[in-house]
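Here is one chain, start to finish.
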Amino acid sequence: MQPSATSSSTSFQCGRMQQLKHFEQKRISSLAWRPYSGGMLAVGCQTGVMLWQVRSHPGAPRPLPRHLCAHGHSPVTSVAWSSDGRLLASASPADTSFMVWDASSVDCTGTPICRHGGGGVSLLAWSPAVQEVGMSRLLTATPSPLFRVWETHGFTCERWSNLAGRVTAACWSPDGNTLLFAMAGDPSLYYLTFFVAKTEESRQVGGANAAVKCADISAVGMPSAGDPDEIIEVGGCVQSMVWDKTGERLACTFTADSPGHSLVAVFVTKTLPVVEVMPCGFIRGRRDEVPAVIAFQNDVQQGSLLSVAWSSGRVAFVPLLSNTPLQSEPSPQTADGNTSQWISAAAVAAAGTTFSSSTKVAPVPAQKVAPVPARKDLMQTHVQSHVASSQSPLLLARTPGFR
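Its structure:
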């Protein structure tokens, strides 16, 4: 379980881009930047995890990766850092244990954590720190209709089963007390709430007994903002989703068999007093482009900034501002120099706009939008409120403790 390093790795710069190559780094499946590290990247691949320290300038020495591997722990399909950057979790569908690596130690010691039932571990999602108890929570989803949530102080867990399908995507609210997730074959979003529980002996996971359906994102047709005669099919089963640090914006991509797989859907969200998910708008790339990776930048001072990596290799940056008047700002740029949009998410919610990442949108003042009664399909209305008490809960069997 010890990391290995080898001098056979190579790295070079092509313009401003670095390429990180290693003969052990095959079939890359996941990436995660270490918080507060200044350039440490974890890469999940066929043989384990490659840990790179990316060069910050051309004169810096070539990076020498650390190869984190353990017997039977491959291929690694998911990696996730703790919010303080001290611990790294890695998972493999072929291994019933997930690994927790202590990246702050000299030898980057790895500890396997195992619970039987459900098969291996296919997806990880580490929550932000829960300030009230000084810990965080870690989701470990299996290839079967079962997932666990761990408290990361003593690594005890609670288990949820009896799902309609396996969990395919998940993300945490900024306070670490709400888990939003989607399942295979189900075009819906569900959430679980967690209460803060702390005793002198131990900390508890504190999850609710049942998940609540908060959004129906089944595929529907909507007119294009640029051409009213053009009908765009949007929605479907979720492939990935990310929640911004303000807890007000959620972005989702859809599976390849969904009509909306070429779009990124953006939602307005809130967690108090109940969780609500309301449609905001859609990001469309160029012809034949589909979104490959989406992520929110964490150090934006106002609003949020969504990065979208398209299948063509192009990267677009989409700033989203709300609840405050927009300031006069320069037009943001995509990675290839084209102008991306600068748009008020509240205004998009009011207008139901579908927008393209290659089209400049003039700034408009943010405005407060009053909610309207929810309908059957989330995508068919421009603004909807989904109150938890009005939704039927998804019945799950919760099993606390060491299961």
